[in-house]
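Dear colleagues,

For the upcoming journal club I promised to circulate an example of a predicted protein-ligand complex. I picked one with guanosine-5'-monophosphate because it came up in last month's discussion. The inputs are reproduced below in full, followed by the predicted structure.
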Amino acid sequence: CLCVAQDFDFFYFVQQWPGSYCDTKASCCYPTTGKPAANFSIHGLWPNYNDGSYPSNCDPDSQFQPSEVSDLIGRMRKDWPTLACPSGNGVKFWTHEWVKHGTCSESVLDQHQYFESALKLKGKVNLVQALQDAGIYPDGSTYSLNSITEAIRAATGHTPGIECNRDESRNPQLYQIYMCVDTSGSSIIECPKLPRGGCSSQVEFPSFGSESA
Ligand code: 5GP
Ligand code: 5GP
Ligand code: 5GP
């Protein structure tokens, strides 16, 4: 075909469970703009190659410009909060994600389109609801990895990647959910390559904040 050279093969759209980021040894800090809801939030939209490798920091000349996404900032605060310490307003996290990952899809998505694409993808799937529909709740109990995968597959039609981290007692817990997205940044697809997840067959799903555990 008369194709333009492909800079990447697909995106990982990665969402994090705040309860699992926060109950680690490193702990977390709520954003200066307020405590996030007990919901999955965006970590990033990451260009990837089919073999599992990925490009990064593709355009040293491109900086994150809040003015280019001013109409999206309210939604970014809600759906893409930063939980790293010390507390921030999100700009540092969004800058990191744009510079490291976003600049590698600039041939397809400009900065506004990049952030808007991630927000739209977030709106496509309600992960908490998908898990709830399968009887899986962020209540501190343990669920089979397979039941989590199947619940999200049932809701999206595609198999997600599940990544675990460890709580302070070193128990593996549901940390991030990876969904694969076509190079236009709009459609969820079957993953060409699932990320390595670090989960065991049973994983904890911790509560977040004031939710009862
Ligand atoms: P970690 O080493 O904590 O898994 O990942 C550190 C960072 O490396 C992530 O925040 C992300 O920026 C990048 N990264 C890790 N795995 C992948 C991957 O499979 N694809 C892409 N595109 N980036 C990744
Ligand atoms: P990655 O390189 O893995 O895409 O992004 C992780 C970087 O973003 C780390 O430097 C981390 O400190 C920073 N960061 C800021 N806020 C957050 C957050 O809420 N979650 C995660 N996973 N990383 C965050
Ligand atoms: P980064 O270099 O990307 O800042 O962070 C390296 C690793 O430490 C990433 O896996 C990131 O998610 C984690 N990390 C950085 N800052 C924090 C923090 O304040 N709390 C937690 N729980 N993890 C953090």
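Two points we might discuss: The chain is about 25% helix and 20% strand. Residues 12, 46, 48, 54, 100, 195 surround guanosine-5'-monophosphate (ligand 1) (CB under 6 Å).

See you all on Thursday,
B. R.
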